[in-house]
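Page 42, continued from yesterday. The earlier attempt failed because a stray header line got pasted into the input along with the sequence. Redoing it now with the clean sequence only.
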Amino acid sequence: MKYVNSRVVINQSVLNQITKAATTALEMTGDYVHGEIVTAQVIPFETGTLQNEGTYVNKKDSKQGSVKIVSSEPYARRLYFHPEYNFKKDNNPNAKGKWLEDWSEKGKYAKEVIQAYTMFFKQQGGF
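This time it went through. Structure tokens are written below.
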């Protein structure tokens, strides 16, 4: 019977660099998706409050692997979960309910979100 010895050395500074790159890339991806949503003009827009001041990227849990796009206006929930509403199209011609769905993991832009994260991660990590 043959025995093999091995030794594993973990380079902590490289591991820290990768972790920091992943966190920063996640935050950048959140900003990217937020920008894409605004550019796509899908958020109902009457005075601009919901889209401009009321929707933002919450990055407080990014080190745990989570960022959230939050619409904080009190009426946002009602508009979001009622796509049957007849939204005004004067300011945002693509306004609709469930405006984040296209960028979710099963949405039509899911691949673009993954590609953006990958690009940001490579940038930040120097890979």
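Notes: The chain has a mean pLDDT of 95.
Reminder to self: strip header lines before submitting.
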